[in-house]
Amino acid sequence: MLKPIQDPDKLKKVGEFSEKVTQTHNEYIDYWLHNTLFHWDFWLSLVLSILPWAVWMKFRKKESSDRLLFVAFSVIIISSWLDFIGTVFGLWYYTGKVIPTIPVYIPWDICLMPVFVILLIQYKPKSSALIKAIIFAAVSSFIGEPFFYWLGFYVMKKWSIFYSFPIYFLLFLASHKLSKRNNFADL
Q: Which residues make Cβ contacts (< 8 Å) with residue 154, sequence separation at least 6?
């Protein structure tokens, strides 16, 4: 069998950290099974995970579906990554999760935000991207986050909704730019 070239002490120490993460996560899953699964917060989160995509399916511009999904998946990747960083560094955390094994809040990162972005992009496509970015950032920061905070789903520890505004603003502008890309060639 191959022997790792990494320092054995480093492997051991990182393995200890990994065990602590696994143990904590297993404790959280047990908690989630008894205190979240099939409770009101689970059901509301599940509805908020399905409803945005159902709305998009009904109102999407069908001939632009592929382009809009490309943008939505980009938003999902970026927002999930940023959310992961925020939770890992203890800036915030979530309750009422649909799935306890993902460190992000699925209704927000994978449903509400990407669908909101692509609906804004497809609505009046000639309108100013800056105005739409301001609308997206303002609604997400000053309505969405406080609403989820009020529900108790989003708990800010070392974060402010005012920090979120420029991030949402830039996320929308990047998404808008992606939606205008025409450099796709046939495979």
A: 92, 94, 105, 108, 145, 148
Q: Which residues of 62-76 are buried (b: 16+ CB within 10 A; e: fewer)?
A: eebeebbebbbebbb
Q: Report how far Cα 4 is from the mean position of its chain's Cα atoms.
A: 35
Give the Cα separation of 104 and 139 in Å (integer). 20
Q: What is the pLDDT of residues 134-167, one digit of tens each?
A: 999 999 999 999 999 999 999 999 999 999 999 9
User: pTM of the entire structure?
Assistant: 0.91
Report d(CA 106, CA 10) in Å as an integer. 34
The structural domains of the chain, with segments of one domain joined by +, span 15-179
